[in-house]
Write a structure and sequence with these properties.
Number of domains: 2
CATH class of the largest domain: Alpha Beta
Helix content: 10-25%
Structural class: alpha+beta
Largest sheet: 6 strands, mixed
Low-confidence stretches: none
Strand content: 25-35%
Strand order of the largest sheet: 6-7-8-3-9-10
Length: 358
């Protein structure tokens, strides 16, 4: 296992990049601690696979360094970096048994057979596949094939990092939760540094201790699942995480106050100084309620999704969603909309500019 440091890392697929628009990865500086569980989360094309390939050694960055335990590995090949990787499609040998698939990475490195058997038995127990060790891999179900692929990545105890690249994409939805839970359990048991790449917020937030959210080649926030939900540092994070995502409505800044529909909106704290253009108010639906308020709108839609209801209200030309658990208003009703003060923030050019109240 290793601490991983990305220092002034940038990458462009252009031979002579001239500006930020030519970079697939904008400058990144971050540390991943030894033994941590991390996720790279973002939409397709955001740069997460490029970053994963740079960490693994499949791609040399245009600028910056990659350090494993403060050792510069930027120019090293994947085998020199001592990593394990689990891909979207299971990488196993169909003609081999499950046991031989799990044993292969150890045998390939000359590990003594008694030690091979001990380690394979340990991993098989963790994966709950002891009863199929003697079966050929060709006959396995897709979820068991991916389990074996994961086991091949975890069977070595000398790897610096185990990386998972969209490992559950081909798994049936009703089986995904089982493998997610199993992977989280495996991390706690083997205590390896793990990096999980996905576009699925549920996978990222349930697996990782800390999540790196990326958009357009840029890291927009790094935090725990709770931090990303409760205090998004960028409107993209608010949109991308949560269902429904964070409400974003335009506002004017006058005299240090945020105004919407001509009314001052109470915020969690003061707004940082700066040019007050392209400003927006952000608040999650979970922190909107309905009742007596001078801010009034018309109910456009009510969706009952079981545990609660999502109420969409038009405030002028802007739609906001609120989540309630009690009796919902009817479509067409004129109702008051209440923003929870300590969860209401201002964003400027997409970035959070509201300070926390003391």
């Amino acid at each position: 296992m290793a601490k991983i440091t990305l220092s002034h890392l940038k990458h462009s697929y252009e031979p002579q990049p001239k500006g930020p628009e030519d970079y697939a990865l904008q400058e990144i500086d971050l540390d991943w601690q030894d033994g941590g569980a991390y996720a790279l989360l973002g939409p397709s094309g955001c740069g997460k696979s490029t970053l994963l390939n740079i960490i693994s050694g499949l791609l040399i960055p245009s600028e910056g360094k990659i350090l494993f335990d403060d050792r510069d590995v930027t120019a090293m090949s994947p085998d020199q970096r001592n990593i394990a990787q689990v891909f979207q499609f299971p990488v196993i040998y169909d003609t081999m048994t499950v046991y031989d698939n799990l044993a292969f990475p150890l045998r390939n490195r000359g590990v003594e057979e008694t030690a091979v058997n001990k380690r394979v038995s340990e991993i098989a127990a963790m994966l709950e596949v002891e009863d199929i060790l003697n079966r050929r891999a060709s006959g396995l179900s897709p979820d068991n094939k991916q389990k074996i692929s994961m086991g091949r990545g975890l069977v070595r105890d000398d790897v610096n990092v185990v990386m998972f690249d969209e490992p559950l994409t081909v798994i049936d939805p009703h089986l995904k939760w089982k493998l997610r839970s199993k992977l989280k359990e495996l991390h706690h048991r083997v205590n390896a540094t793990m990096i999980y790449v996905t576009h699925d917020q549920t996978e990222a937030l349930t697996f990782a201790d800390r999540v790196v959210v990326m958009d357009e080649g840029q890291v927009v926030q790094i935090g725990t699942p709770v931090e990303l939900f409760e205090r998004p540092e960028h409107t993209f994070v608010g949109h991308f995480i949560g269902s429904p995502g964070m409400n974003i409505i335009p506002c004017m800044i006058e005299g240090g106050a945020a105004k919407f529909m001509g009314q001052i909106i109470d915020l969690e704290g003061p707004i940082k100084s700066g040019v007050s253009t392209n400003c927006e108010i952000g608040i999650r639906p979970e922190f909107i309620s309905f009742g007596e308020s001078s801010l009034r709108g018309t109910v456009k839609k009510v969706s009952d999704i079981g545990r609660h209801k999502v109420v969409e209200v038009m405030l002028g030309d802007h739609k906001v969603a609120g989540i309630i658990e009690d009796i919902a208003p009817e479509k067409g009703d004129n109702i008051g909309v209440i923003f929870q003060k300590n969860q209401t923030r201002v964003y400027r050019d997409g970035w959070l500019v509201t300070e926390k109240a003391d």
